[in-house]
């Protein structure tokens, strides 16, 4: 693994926008627009490195599924903050019937610098983003800058194949809706669902698009409907389950949830069992089940334990996103050396305490690898860089190549 600088292509911004990346720039707190898609540098991997990382990702994914099964079997969903008995029962049912429920993708965030083993930082298997840039613009960048080279990137093909394989699980006779929140100011969610809709259409599925805010509730039929009052039988939502099950329509979501086998009227993708894999408590459960595993960092739910005086630790809200609420504590006095989105942290909010493993620093750029899983297979890599200790909404995306 090596970071190399390169001169960006002329007209790169228009190029990546035409390839689906509609927000190539990020507005920073000082008001300045800076590249989000950053092709002034790129990362180089060897093929053996990538093959080893693929094995790690698939092993981690299998371990996460085992941890989910443990949480359900041992009735430990409260550790994830799922305390509503009805919701817990539905999540458990979804897990038991997972073979009947479409499930698409997830993203592992890994610490890796090319010299040691990869370490799991977290897993988002419910609403992961940075998909479009990983699947499309960086592939075309490689073809233009390094023709004949390769890349860890089979995302597009695997997504299309996954839709084809799981089409039989979708309710017949109605389109698959793709929903995102209209409150998405950057356009990231819109871009992601539009791309996933495209892959579903390439798989031969009939689709439609809708904003979450435009999903209606028909009181007479007690079903969700679109703006034309058509029943919504299946919907891919880039909208977290923890929001879907707590907003004003949550009772209707639980009432009509299709958990396979005709148990309800609305089938949501990702399925409810993905709540088990998109919660930072998973990190502590993994460490409990696989203590000392080379690809895991020590993590706990009841406090930092020995990490407070040995390595230092990172406090992560169980349902935090984009680095919000993450605090980094040095060993010893518990000094906070970084805090991201502190205003988003509710006092006494349940957290996971994970060993501090500073991100690799390449010339002042701290890098995290986003390794994608489609179905149960490793499918691609996206790389984000940040200036701070925590990868947040101001991180940059850099392409990679296998040479």
Q: How many DSSP-defined strands?
A: 22
Number of DSSP helical runs: 10
Can you summarize the main beta sheet?
A: 6 strands, antiparallel
Overall geometry: globular
User: Structural class of the secondary elements?
Assistant: alpha+beta
Classify the beta-strand content into a percent band.
15-25%
Distance between the termini: 10 Å
* Helical content class: 25-40%
Average pLDDT figure: 93
Low-confidence runs = 341-347
Task: Return Rg in Å.
Answer: 21 Å
Please characterize this protein's 3D structure:
With 403 residues, this protein is an alpha+beta fold. The protein has helices at residues 12-18, 47-73, 85-96, 131-135, 137-145, 155-166, 188-202, 241-244, 250-256, 281-289, and strands at residues 2-5, 25-27, 33-35, 41-45, 105-111, 119-124, 176-180, 207-211, 216-218, 223-225, 234-237, 267-269, 299-300, 313-317, 327-329, 336-339, 351-355, 361-362, 365-374, 377-386, 396-398, 400-402. The strands form 6 sheets. Strands 5, 6, 18, 19, 20 and 21 form a 6-stranded antiparallel sheet that branches. Strands 13-17-14-15-16 form a 5-stranded antiparallel sheet, with helices on one face. It has a 4-stranded parallel sheet with strand order 8-7-11-12, covered by helices on one side. Strand 18 and strand 19 (365-374) form a beta hairpin. The longest helix has 27 residues, at 47-73. The chain starts with a strand and ends with a strand. Mean pLDDT is 93; it is low at 341-347.
């Amino acid at each position: 693994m090596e970071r190399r600088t390169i001169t960006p292509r002329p007209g790169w911004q228009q190029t990546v926008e035409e390839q689906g990346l509609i927000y190539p720039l990020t507005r920073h707190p000082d008001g300045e627009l800076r590249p989000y898609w950053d092709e002034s540098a790129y990362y180089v991997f060897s093929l053996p490195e990538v093959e080893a990382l693929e094995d790690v990702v698939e092993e981690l994914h299998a371990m996460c599924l085992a941890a989910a099964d443990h949480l359900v079997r041992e009735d430990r969903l409260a550790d994830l903050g799922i305390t509503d008995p009805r919701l817990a029962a539905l999540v458990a049912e979804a897990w038991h019937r997972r073979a009947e429920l479409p499930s698409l993708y997830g993203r592992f965030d890994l610490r890796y610098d090319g010299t040691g083993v990869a370490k799991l930082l977290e897993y988002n298997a419910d609403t992961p983003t940075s998909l479009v840039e990983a699947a499309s613009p960086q592939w075309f960048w490689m073809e233009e800058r390094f023709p004949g080279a390769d890349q860890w990137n089979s995302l597009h093909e695997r997504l299309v194949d996954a839709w084809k394989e799981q089409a039989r699980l979708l309710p017949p006779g109605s389109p698959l809706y793709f929903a995102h929140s209209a409150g998405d100011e950057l356009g990231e969610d819109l871009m992601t669902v539009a791309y996933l809709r495209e892959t579903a259409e390439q798989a031969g599925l009939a689709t439609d698009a809708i904003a979450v805010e435009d999903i209606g509730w028909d009181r007479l039929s007690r079903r969700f409907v679109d703006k034309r009052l058509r029943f919504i039988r299946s919907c891919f939502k880039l909208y977290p389950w923890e929001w879907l099950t707590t907003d004003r329509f949550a009772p209707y979501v639980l009432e009509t949830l299709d958990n396979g086998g005709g148990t309800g009227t609305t089938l949501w993708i990702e399925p409810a069992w993905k709540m088990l894999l998109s919660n930072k408590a998973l990190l502590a459960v993994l460490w409990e089940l696989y203590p000392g595993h080379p690809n895991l960092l020590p993590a706990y739910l009841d406090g930092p334990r020995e990490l407070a005086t040995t390595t230092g630790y990172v406090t992560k809200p169980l349902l935090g996103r984009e680095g919000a609420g993450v605090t980094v504590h040095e060993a010893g006095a518990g000094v906070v050396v970084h805090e991201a989105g502190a205003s988003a942290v509710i006092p006494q909010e349940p957290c996971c305490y994970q060993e501090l493993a500073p991100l690799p620093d390449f010339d002042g750029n701290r890098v995290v690898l986003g390794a994608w899983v489609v179905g149960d297979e490793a499918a691609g890599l996206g790389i984000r860089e940040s200036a701070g200790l925590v990868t947040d909404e101001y991180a940059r995306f850099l392409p990679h190549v296998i040479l």
